[in-house]
């Protein structure tokens, strides 16, 4: 392979190879090698995270690239146990892009930032020729204040730890796919795009023994489970019957032949906590507006022959592979 | 005007309109409205700055997009009087981009970061379809520790203050233009792309009374002078005979009909200091490897009918307009 392929941006195996073989070796250092959604800046109590947003289409049911560019970065800070404070904003705009659309996107971005209590403190705008972009690409980099005594690490996971999720799977990816392909839904599926820092604050206040938080974005729960189990040197077992998936989402994905485990979410998190705390944490999550459909969806088990497994409805176990990343490019 | 135009990314009047009419109003807040190259984060002693790099071509004499992505952001921190510490890295790669080129760019980025003493702490990689990008776009966001008791502000400028520059003008812009258009130079012009934080450290140590630093990137000295004079409610007078421009650069730009004042630099800074300190500061700058050709190039004067003026070689004064931004898109 001598050229970058589209699937390498989709959060699956192709991306992992690109990161592991090219990008990380070039830049390796102890802070980057933490391998989090963000970096704990030494001696500052601060966390830094960055994401570029290239979602297509730019507008979709439940949000647009502006809202997503705030939620995605706020969530990465929240997953590091940090209170989001400041954002930078880098715009790459394609010549010919409509002023109206830019204004709508910025208004949505500003509104989402306001609701999340984060401030856009600095920015940069570039314009590229028509045909060298796709309307607009947005980078946001976020700084937050860590609420944790110890940074989260997959190494902290222990056998028996429970996995909890705050609601239905695969809603963002399906919404993007439906909007992009103009799929004929009676009611178009809606993205779950939301800022999760408020939910996380409540969760950490009640259950400081949470071991780890991570949001199942690109590559979905399948990528998250594979990555974290590999990093922890343990395995993870999901329970299919306990996975919250709304029935229209389930039906649509079945029809399309897409595994909901590999589909991106933008308003979901997975929390790992000790078994003894799982029920308490579940209640706290279910009491929050963004966690009503929360569920305990699996547990950490001894290392098996593969990192991620699922116990199916009929009681058998099958392994869940790292998604290849080909099905859903440009989901965020 | 209902669509974004290419010139609006080039640092001139078009960009100012886009920023003033669309982007700043949507996001306005006291931190963003500081209007610096970076934002002083309240209560942290830290500065945050962001830039996306879309330079075309990706490789040019004197550098490439990887080196530029470090120097540009390090320099924005340096212009805020900050010691650069941490960078985030956002890559948007076009499908089909050569692995080899990616590796060269990352190696150069890593090497430049190492030399500058900054650490890439977190990153993000996206891939877009062929025809929706241009090889690679890079965002870097930087965090640095401020060395200033008071943030720099154009409001601090006083009549009589001198402007100093650390060397020859217009070298980056000409190098890019020559590489892009394959202009037939016997010796291709070389970009001045360099990290200036070391020079700034020496300057601030010797001359803490420096009022303001700014790097003349997009839109060149013309944009810098217009912006800062407008923000200070004073005017600036440049002395044409004192502007350091290497003679091959001068000749090439004359042939191309391009005003060197409006051409981007990537290894230059303009310092404003009290008249009494100008000679001392000049000596310190000239003693630094990145400041050998430093010169005092003008002064702050009472407000005139326009913000920026130049005293020509023949002794007349003419005003220097904000560049339109049409000549040199995608210079950084």
List keywords for this structure.
Phosphoribosyl-aminoimidazole Synthetase, Chain A, domain 2; homodimer; 332 residues; five-stranded mixed sheet; 60s Ribosomal Protein L30, Chain: A; alpha+beta
Short précis:
Chain A is of the alpha+beta class and 332 residues long. In chain A, 30% of the residues lie in helices and 24% in strands. In chain A, 59% of the residues are buried.
Overview of the molecule:
- 2 copies of one chain form a homodimer.
- With 332 residues, chain A is an alpha+beta fold.
- The first copy, chain A, folds into 2 domains: 38-146, PurM-like, N-terminal domain (60s Ribosomal Protein L30, Chain: A, 2-Layer Sandwich); 154-319, PurM-like C-terminal domain (Phosphoribosyl-aminoimidazole Synthetase, Chain A, domain 2, Alpha-Beta Complex).
- Chain A contains 8 helices and 14 strands.
- Chain A has helices at 13-27, 65-79, 99-116, 171-181, 197-206, 220-232, 247-256, 278-286, and strands at residues 39-41, 46-53, 59-60, 63-64, 82-94, 119-128, 136-146, 162-165, 212-214, 235-239, 270-273, 295-301, 308-311, 317-319.
- Chain A has a 7-stranded mixed β-sheet with strand order 9-11-8-12-10-13-14.
- In chain A, β5 (82-94), α3 and β6 form a beta-alpha-beta unit.
- In chain A, α2 (65-79) runs parallel beside α3 (99-116) and α5 (197-206) runs antiparallel to α8 (278-286).
- The first copy, chain A, is globular and about 55 Å long.
- Chain A starts with 12 loop residues before the first helix and ends in a 13-residue tail after the last strand.
